[in-house]
Amino acid sequence: MLRVFVRNVLVWRFRGNACRRGGSGGPDAVFGRFRLQVGAMNVPENVAAPRLPWRLRLVNWFRRRVRRWFQWRAPANPAVDANSLTWQQSRVVKVVAGLIPAHRLPPFVLRRAYRISTTPFHIDAVPVRTCRNLRLDSGLRLRVYTPASAAVSGAPALMFYHGGGCVIGDLETHDTLCRHLANQSEQHVIAVDYRLAPRHRFPAQALDAIEAFNWVAGEAASLGIDVNRLGVGGDSAGGYLSTLLCQQALNPTLGGQPARMPAYQWLVYPAVDFREEAVTGGFPSGVVLTDELMRYFGEHVIPPGLDVTRPDVSPLLAESLAGMPRGMVLTVGHDPLCMQGRNYVERLRGAGVATTHLHFPRLMHEFVSMGGVCPDSRAALGVASETLRDLAWADTYT
Hints:
With 398 residues, this protein is α/β, with parallel strands linked by helices. It has a single domain (1-398), classed as 3-Layer(aba) Sandwich (Rossmann fold), CATH 3.40.50. Helix content is 35%, strand content 17%. The protein has eleven helices and ten strands. The protein has helices at residues 2-12, 54-73, 87-97, 107-118, 175-185, 204-218, 220-223, 237-250, 291-301, 338-350, 375-392; strands at 28-31, 34-37, 130-135, 141-146, 155-161, 188-193, 225-235, 265-268, 327-334, 355-364. An eight-stranded mixed beta sheet has the order 3-4-6-5-7-8-9-10, sandwiched between helices. Strand 3 (130-135) and strand 4 form a beta hairpin. Helix 5 packs across helix 11 (375-392) and helix 6 crosses helix 8 (237-250).
């Protein structure tokens, strides 16, 4: 059922629609005779959301159907190995394997495919107190999530940069995750819709990340944010942009400087090294993020001739990481970026930076988008959310 659904959407119903900042057109998912818009939802500004918009409630209903299918097909006594991929994730890989390989698709097609194919596997969207769309004078779009908890005035905030290799992903692909993080960590979450490659190559994404951070730091009082508790984080490419932002606060070299050092960094399987030997982790197949897809992202993001050994391109290669904020680095066993994350943890700890390392050997890259069907993914996300809350509400700042 899942493979037929995804193939119907991507092949029979596909209508490409590139956007100004890397693709923000609303994907149309097909369920039976109904057309369900699962992206580019118009979330009104300054409007409280005591309950979810009807579109999100409808998507949640469909996700529950997908979840029941996984529960029905799951083996009664699956073989459990300490390092093997979970059964649910292996099924997701099989669904994806039935499609055209991601690294063979043009970026604007891959954006649509990513947006639609991951939607059935997300955790359910949860209501937050408010969800506001903002647009800066430069055109950069932000989405501000206020947690459902009562303590919102003067609360911490996370600048969230989505994953996707700086080529795919947007505010909609990570909407459910940001809602979850805001409520679980009891802080504001500000998602950033930074420019995407290949139309905008490096360092456009890093400059957008810095611009958004500086704007939020300057408007912290009006947003109800404690600027001293303003942190950065994200998954994959979002973790990469977070590390770059922190390093640029110490040594600005890209043409933009953060107004202050973030209070913490929350990094989920971050990319921190663009050297050729670092982007091949021995995963030619069997996972969502393969070695070929890693090369695909690098070729689209990094301008030809750019020296990838520069510390402002590969943060892992910085001469010193002293002065970086405390943080968390999460790695997973089935991921080409696993060793990069482990090495970054060692470098941070060696520089005296307080760093929590979470490792989940049975999970793969992109597990944060599979919480709806994989119990192990939900559990790991819960642990990461608790760690985020501890970082945000700590009494001391780095």
